[in-house]
Amino acid sequence: MTPEELHRAIARGDVAEQSSAARQTQSGDDVRLLDVRNRDEYEAWRISGETVDSTVVPYSRFMAAEVQGTVGELAAENGISEDENVVVVCGRGEASDYVAELLREAGYDAENLERGMRGWARVYDAREVPADAEATVLQYRRPSSGCLAYLVVSGEEAAVVDPLRAFADRYVADARERGAELRYAVDTHVHADHVSGVRDVADLTGAEIVLPTGAANRGLAYADAEEYDVRFVGGGDELRVGDATLTAVDAPGHTPEMTAFRLSDLLFAGDSLFVESVARPDLAEGDEGAPDAARRLHRTLTETFEAFEDDVTVAPGHYGEATEPAANGTYTATLGELRDRLSALSMDEAAFVEYVLGDMPPRPANYEEIVETNIGREALADEEAFELELGPNNCAATAA
Fold first, then answer.
1. C-alpha distances in angstroms, 327 versus 32, 130, 332?
2. CA 344 to chain centre
3. What is the overall mean pLDDT for the chain?
4. If you ran DSSP here, which 8-state letter would residue 301 be given?
5. 76 and 175 part of one domain
6. Cα–Cα dist 235/303, whole Å
7. If I label 269, which of 86, 344, 369, 393 is the partner at 20 to 30 A Cα–Cα?
8. What CA–CA distance (Å, rounded) separates 397 from 103?
């Protein structure tokens, strides 16, 4: 099964389009995964979903079982049935390919997830977000990390918000498919969990790079480079995209320069507010600066965003492992829904600071090197950049 096929299966809640044959089971069946990595690797980063049923049996145990001739017994002991299809997973798709072959020899219906978790990290899906008639909005999601990006198309112009470097050509192709050229490549802030694609989009299209004014204070090294046209924006500044207007909204907290963008009743919130949590405040200024950053985030959520109506739809920069999509399949929610759902939005400042600092997950893997890459101080080849950002994003304030 290819990663793309597995992702479509998870999204639909069934298993379909197996790599060996176009075979479909009844809707609602679980995706049965056998992960042959070590338990700590699995716990740190795994394939998840409402219909995903995972079993972890390290590769070394299958090697021992092969010698002893007990592969079938090992599978059965771990709840794997000969009557079900199982997809075997590892980091690169090599160990899992060997285990899948052992299982088939033992009479099991097993397939390998091609390229393993690194293949999973290349899965990128898009769904349309309901928006006003002036624009078409696509939400891109990377299920391996929960990263979200957006394409705004109006007439013959388009803008991409928070693009990922690994998928720069995808945004260009999707805009052109809709008869538009990318005019802007927008970052809401200096990202710490993935390598930004704004420069790559600009290289492909000549699009203008749009960054928050405060990004210059983060040591941006490419702002004055002749090959890039960089525009800095702050609260109230507007970007015209065809007949649509993106309006910048200052939203500091996650980072000092964090800037959201409003398109009519749609708010591209970046990493300020998610549909299941709020942002963590320590990635830009460290542990010492986190309390002050948390206070700034509290003002963003309880003053700036509080001025917006309940029916404004929040389109965040990430979603969590257990996040349920909205009825339309996107990871969005109205401010009214979030005000009812998230207790953090009604906390006073002191309680809020204690809350966001009290249960933060580990910082994103390689976040310091990712920041250096995104501000242009470090240059990486495409594959190096891809390897650097593998794993969960961990940009929310709470570990759960």
1. 25, 11, 9
2. 22
3. 88
4. I
5. no
6. 14
7. 369
8. 41
